[in-house]
Amino acid sequence: MFSLFPEILFLEPAGIALLRLTAGIFLIYIGYSVWLDRRAIAGERFPIIGHMPEWLSAIAAAAQVAIGTLLVVGAWTQLMAILGAIVALKCFFLGKKYGGIVPIARSASILLFVILLALVVMGAGAFAFDLPL
């Protein structure tokens, strides 16, 4: 395999860790935004569930912050990446109709989805609790 800079290939786990940190920070931001807008979310009518109670949007916000926090520290990375990918898909599909309450753009949610799927395949990277022994 030809590499332009073969001397820095040992930094691959650090690059994966940067992806993990970025995705975790985005998910924490999404959860925090949902927490701040939980009254506005309770006023919207959603396709299957109708009006979402305010307490349910608070639980969703706490779950998204928990997923992001676990990604930042690198605990259960693959499971949290799958759950985070579901959140990113939710932001993508709801972003067109409910743009006022979805905190990130649809293009950013696609990028977040791809990063999280890559974390499922690549693992946690450096500085994580679930490093393989």
Topology:
Blueprint: H1 12-36, H2 38-43, E1 45-46, E2 50-51, H3 54-73, H4 77-95, H5 106-122
Antiparallel strand pairs: 1-2
Helix pairs in contact: 1-3, 1-4, 1-5, 3-4, 4-5
Can you give a write-up of this model?
The protein is mainly α and 133 residues long. It has one domain. It contains five helices and two strands. Strands 1-2 form a two-stranded antiparallel ribbon. A hairpin with a 3-residue loop joins strand 1 and strand 2 (50-51). Helix 1 (12-36) crosses helix 5 (106-122) and helix 4 packs antiparallel against helix 5 (106-122). The longest helix is centred in the N-terminal third of the chain and has 25 residues, at 12-36. It is elongated. The protein starts with 11 loop residues before the first helix and ends in an 11-residue tail after the last helix. The mean pLDDT is 91.
Structure described in brief:
Helices cover 65% and strands 3% of the residues. It has 133 residues and is mostly helical.
As a whole number of angstroms, the C-alpha radius of gyration is: 17 Å
Secondary structure class reads: mainly alpha
Low-confidence stretches: none
Which band does the percent of strand residues land in? under 5%
